[in-house]
Design brief:
Layout (H helix, E strand, L loop, with lengths): L31 H20 L11 H24 L9 H41 L5 H18 L4 H15 L10 H29 L17 H20 L7 H17 L9 H57 L11
Helix pairs in contact: 1-2, 1-6, 1-7, 2-6, 2-9, 3-4, 3-5, 3-6, 3-9, 4-8, 5-6, 6-7, 8-9
Subcellular location: Membrane
Keywords: Membrane, Transmembrane, Transmembrane helix
Protein name: Protein BPS1
Length: 355
């Protein structure tokens, strides 16, 4: 931490200073009220991280766990918005440069959300092939079996592809990881509280988004391991969670799975079992009882996959909107205060917004 920055080093997420100095800030004294706000925030963050611990290994990486992870992230960003209100920002030394950095970094988070949304659309489109196959498997003519087989082949071909935007997520996340090395903080107790809270949320953001990226890319190389100092109250919960989740993902990939998404793996396994049967065309009717059972299993698995993707996509959309709103919150507070100050001094209150 604290290494000199150069033109090639990623810009800091929040240039408030080294987060490890927040515990004992120099030149500013944290009041009991501010300390209570920070401690309450970090207690809630600890609770969110603890609730993401797996009840069983089979739970990761399920779509239901990913949905909980996104809900947890969404709650943390809403908590930041509440903290900003409780701190009664703006602080007097808020700087336009800080806002520009936040706008830049939140734009990157929004880009990641867009990439995830694009991947959801791809997976949902792939599921249309499954639905068409299931529709044809309702009959017993050789023509329908041929169409069903073609649909399943189409599903297999497209499900193993990947949206190019997911690849870009890794670059963005590497940049965010690098920006955890923060520069000096200005002498503001409120700024230090906000910075430390945002630091925790940023760590949570990088972790969750790297897990999603690894899951969607089909590569454990996309995982990011963060080393967080143990001076934060939420560090033990985060370290345990990161260790368990990342280890489980790497284990699954090492076992030859094409995806760590449980629901997707289940569908893939059933399709592999079904294909040899229906490739026989009309002869497949000989295995009617066995075929009906396998088709029913595929129908249930496809429905579970579709519902899981739909719910997760909705949570990512909600997160996207919360990040947008938080940008507005941080833009409005300092600029409204500056406008009042300019008016009181007889200055020009027409301010140019940073975009």
């Amino acid at each position: 931490m604290g290494r000199p920055q150069d033109p090639h080093h990623p810009r800091s997420f929040f240039p408030f200073g080294n987060p490890f100095r927040v515990i004992a800030p120099k030149g500013s004294h944290m009041s009991p009220q501010l300390l209570a706000l920070l401690q309450a925030f970090e207690a809630r963050l600890t609770d969110r991280l603890s609730k993401l611990m797996l009840k069983s290994k089979e739970e990761a990486l399920s779509l239901s766990w990913m949905t909980k992870a996104m809900e947890s992230l969404l709650d943390s960003y809403n908590d930041i918005r509440t903290l900003i209100s409780d701190l009664e920002l703006p602080v007097s030394d808020w700087d336009d440069k800080w806002i520009e950095v936040y706008l830049d970094i939140s734009r990157k988070v929004l880009d990641i959300c867009n990439a995830f949304t694009s991947e959801f659309s791809r997976l949902i489109t792939c599921n249309l092939s499954l639905k068409f196959a299931l529709h044809n498997l309702d009959g017993n003519s050789s023509k329908q079996f041929v169409r069903a087989c073609s649909s399943l082949d189409d599903w297999k071909q497209h499900i193993h592809s990947m949206d190019h935007r997911i690849e870009k997520c890794s670059t963005i996340l590497d940049n965010l990881k690098g920006s955890l090395d923060l520069s000096k903080v200005k002498n503001s107790a409120k700024g230090k509280v906000l910075m430390q809270a945002m630091y925790g949320v940023k760590v949570q953001t990088v972790f969750v988004c790297s897990v999603f990226t690894a899951a969607f890319s089909g590569s454990p190389k996309k995982l990011i391991d963060l080393d967080v100092a143990d001076m934060y109250s939420w560090t033990p919960a985060f370290s345990r969670l990161q260790s368990v989740i990342n280890e489980e993902i790497r284990t699954r990939f090492s076992n030859g799975k094409f995806s760590v998404l449980i629901e997707l793996e289940v569908v893939d396994a059933i399709v592999k079992e079904l294909n040899p049967t229906i490739q026989g065309g009309a002869d497949a009717t000989v295995e009617t009882k066995s075929l009906l059972k396998t088709v029913e299993e595929l129908g249930n698995a496809e429905e579970k996959l579709s519902k899981g993707l739909d719910l997760l996509a909705k949570r990512v959309d909600q997160f996207f909107k919360v990040v947008l709103t938080s940008r507005d919150d941080l833009l409005f507070a300092p600029r409204s205060a500056k406008a009042v100050k300019n008016c009181s001094l007889g200055g020009n209150a027409n301010l140019k917004l940073v975009s």
